[in-house]
Design goal:
heterodimer, A: mainly beta, four-stranded antiparallel β-sheet, 9 strands, 9% helix, B: mainly beta, Immunoglobulin-like, 2 domains, 1 helix, globular
């Protein structure tokens, strides 16, 4: 999971204030399939940034080192654009992403 | 679709010394998680966790019991001079297996009269430390197989209509055998189902997850087959 960019105007304000020297960071990422209830995959993370900042988050996933497709229709939960600080939750549906015939043994984001 | 409403915040506070003209540096930002309903609260993110507590006025000593999914228990005792304990959850960088731990800190007087207790449940999830398995195969036999002790997740947010739930019920019923009803006071977390070296044995198990007062229910059928080879005799 990567930080794509912060909202331009807001980011400029943050830099001017210099309130959080280390910049936005994503921590405490937990990925787990909802076995045995459903094939959905819960992706939880915590965004650490200045409270006044909104950040766009880019979500990428791999099976081991092989990139996986994450079409928008396979994602639900919290928005990835304009994300504010705190805990967030994304749900990935591997079936809607077309992975209907394989076991992803090394799934990671 | 669930929108997180938690008020978790990274708080950086600045303490000012009024009247003297001096000021202190801001403290390092720390995570303050105020959402007891979230799975985040009950998940371990490091292999060592600093447990801290406050002593009540009547307490003179405390005992910490940590019980894993397989029933193993770690116990240690504290006197009133100690207010924290660094719990080494596992030694390696990544866990060897998923687990869920029940923590109980019992306070007592010098005369061994219990005067209070703190409890918590923490899950060690592979997907918090690296890659994890995702099975997307429809009707996969592997989906229903259970061999080891496993974590069963529950979260009212699985269904958007159950987000007002106040408790959870997980029923495990062995076909032709025992039925176990588990009631949880929270609505998100993990239940550690000990199936190895237990009285559950082998067979087919029906699991039902409900949130009392809500109409949505989740069901799963799991099978545990005997270990080793099975020979047919004629």
């Amino acid at each position: 999971m990567k930080m794509a960019k912060a909202g331009g105007t807001v980011l400029a304000g943050c830099l001017a204030l210099g309130a959080l020297a280390d910049g936005p960071a994503i921590n405490d990422v937990v990925v787990r399939q909802r076995w045995p209830w459903s094939r959905l995959v819960d992706i939880n993370y915590v965004l650490a940034c200045d409270p006044s900042v909104k950040v766009d988050v880019a979500l990428t996933a791999k099976n081991g080192t092989a990139p996986l497709a994450l079409p928008p229709e396979s994602l639900s939960g919290d928005n990835l654009c304009g994300v504010s600080q705190g805990a967030h939750h994304i749900v990935w549906d591997p079936v809607k992403a077309g992975y209907t015939n394989e076991v992803l043994k090394q799934f990671n984001v | 679709m669930k929108r997180m409403t938690r008020s978790a915040a990274l708080a950086a506070s600045i303490l000012f010394l009024t009247g003297t003209g001096a000021s202190a540096e801001p403290s390092a930002p720390v995570l303050v998680d105020s959402d007891l309903r979230g799975a985040h609260w009950g998940t371990a993110f490091t292999n060592a966790i600093d447990l801290t507590w406050d002593w009540g006025t009547n307490a003179a000593k405390a005992r910490l019991d940590i019980t894993g999914m397989d029933g193993t228990t770690f116990t240690t005792n504290f006197t009133k001079t100690v207010s924290n304990y660094l719990w080494r959850v596992f030694a390696s960088d990544v866990p060897a297996a998923e687990d869920v731990y029940d923590l109980t800190l019992t306070f007592s007087t010098d005369g061994n009269v219990a005067v209070g207790a703190l409890t918590s449940r923490l899950a060690v999830v592979n997907g918090a430390f690296g890659a994890t398995a995702v099975n997307a195969v429809s009707n996969s036999p592997a989906w229903t197989k259970v061999k080891e002790n496993v974590l069963i997740p529950y979260d009212a947010s699985f269904s958007g209509t159950a987000t007002n739930a106040l408790s959870t019920q997980l029923v495990i019923a062995k076909r032709g055998g025992a039925v176990q009803t588990n009631a949880f006071a929270d609505v998100a977390g993990y239940y550690g189902w000990k199936i190895r070296r237990s009285s559950w044995g082998y067979g087919t198990f029906d699991l039902a997850l409900t949130f009392p007062g809500m109409t949505n229910a989740w069901a799963a059928e799991l099978m545990r087959q005997t270990d080793g080879l099975i020979f047919g005799m004629r």
